[in-house]
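Tutorial sheet, problem 5. The two components below are modelled jointly, 670 residues in total.
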Amino acid sequence: MSDRRNLFNKVWDLHAIENLPSGQTQLFIGLQMLHEVTSPQAFEMLRDRNLKVMFPERTLATVDHIVPTQSVLRPFQDGLAEQMMSAIETNCKEFGITLFDLKDQRQGVVHVVGPEIGATQPGMTIVCGDSHTSTHGAFGAIALGIGTSQVAHVLATQTLALAKPRVRKVIVNGKMKPGVFAKDVTLYIIRKLGVQGGVGYAYEYAGEVFDNMSMEERMTVCNMSIEGGARCGYINPDQTTVDYIQGREQAPKGEEFDRAAKWWLSLASGPDAEFDDVVEYDAADIEPTVTWGINPGQSVGVNENLPQLADYSKDDQVGIQEAFDYMGLEAGQAIKGLNIDVAFIGSCTNGRISDLRQAAEIAKGRHVAENVKALVVPGSQQVLKQAVEEGLDKIFEAAGFEWRGAGCSMCLAMNPDKLVGNQISASSSNRNFKGRQGSPTGRTLLMSPAMVAAAAINGYVSDVREMLEPATV
Amino acid sequence: MSEITSVTGTGVPLLLDDIDTDRIIPARYLRCVTFDGLGENAFEDDRQQDPNHPFDNPVYRQGTVLVSGRNFGCGSSREHAPQALIRWGVKAVIAESFAEIFYGNCTSLGVPAVCASRADLEKLSNAIKADPNLEIRVDLEQCQVTYESESVPVTINESARNALMTGQYDFLAQLLDRKDKIQTRASEIPYMNQFAN
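Model answer (structure tokens):
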């Protein structure tokens, strides 16, 4: 009889140890990733209870959130950042955990690094004290963001107490139009299902659109699952997945790789797999998308106007008006043509090599508009190295973009890169929350890296399709 | 851990939707290696921009029961958010709904997060505004919130309720109890075993 379980349930069952008195499941965790923001208190909890790390070899650490992108000379100018950096160095040394520090060429944003070194693999349970851990679901893993107390639980026991979510299959069929990218697909899904539409669910992304995506594009989609309220998102492993992993530092080698690949492919949801819910969209309906509000569900196609208050229920109107007021925008106005002050290309959503290539294609031979500050921040040192080899840094610099070192940078501005006052930023990152980019009144418009590059060049929100080479349109 | 069957205190009305973790504690206050002191910066930016923010209003300063709207705590997994609320003085949150990671973080820190209908939240919020000294009781045993002569039903995830009421909301001890089973399960997982099984 065929296995009607979907991938999520197969992987869950494999890792379930037993039911706890609370009704939750104790789940084995295959890989925990750490960074400097959410781990120091967890290590302190271990010390308080005199506990060790149970599987240090299933744990890896990097530094990303507070890393300056201009000078990484120690000690950092920011004393608090220096304290956090020292803490993760001391903690990893004391507890026997591999740390990709600033001198290590593998350093970078945790969700860029894990896949890049081959640590992220299908069928794993993966956690990190960071909500964008959902990124790793692109490989067909159950990948969850957790809180600091849970980080301590996993360090001490390599397990977590978890309630099992339901699984919603999100199907997107058809062909994506030229100039439409993975970021537009995920913003479209969040707009349709809402920022709390995914609460209680894991999302399985399926259909032609995801089948045809590269691993980088799949990571962008899964990364933003959390913005739609889903606990995690994943895509079934296929040959694209297997090919991406092969040859990477921590990937299985030789015959072991062949055995691994066979197992990975066997995990995929079969044609008659069962789901708790199914929704379906058509790729032809997806346009280059821009957020206008203060959560990632508040977006429009670049050629659409902002909604009217009357489009919303009475309960929702308060929040919508709050978003208009904060953003300084009006109901019904066009988003296209809105002036920007800052352009940010980077983050765990869109700081990978393919993102930089797409942005560089727009930047090539053009120049950033006067009065726009434009930053390109590679997601990792590996991405940076690859981009330099391809000459992308030169393209960006010639176009007037600042070329920076690897880190989270202006996605959440825990380092010196910040918006000032009520600047408007075109950003390839994942959150447009109030104050997200470091200024309490700063305003963020989320869009694809190519759209950010287009906005940087023109100085206002633009339709990237008007700047693509005719041959690609 | 102490058993939590109810929380009684005065309220703080913040009936807005989609309050995200960056608003609860802006990212720049995450530059720390302990959670101490985070309470002072709870809703820091909102407070500066809204002179009427309830967290800045002295009449609510003793409040321990936070009343909010839909999708409270969306965004980051940062435990700094509930830690900041706890250090400000919050002991329970009543909202229309919660984001999941935030909800889990609250539970593991012993903060009941319960859901009520919009209509009941509006009534409760108005009652608090009318009388900031109003005593509110969040009762996990009966799954209800009582104030004045009112009693409204609330819902809470059964495992969270169970964990709070039995004092087993810090799961670490339970997880540590099963060390042998953890090792056994680990040995059965293909990637822990060179994909041999």
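Marking note: Strands of chain B lie at 6-9, 11-14, 65-68, 92-95, 113-115, 136-139, 144-147, 150-153. Full credit if you identified this.
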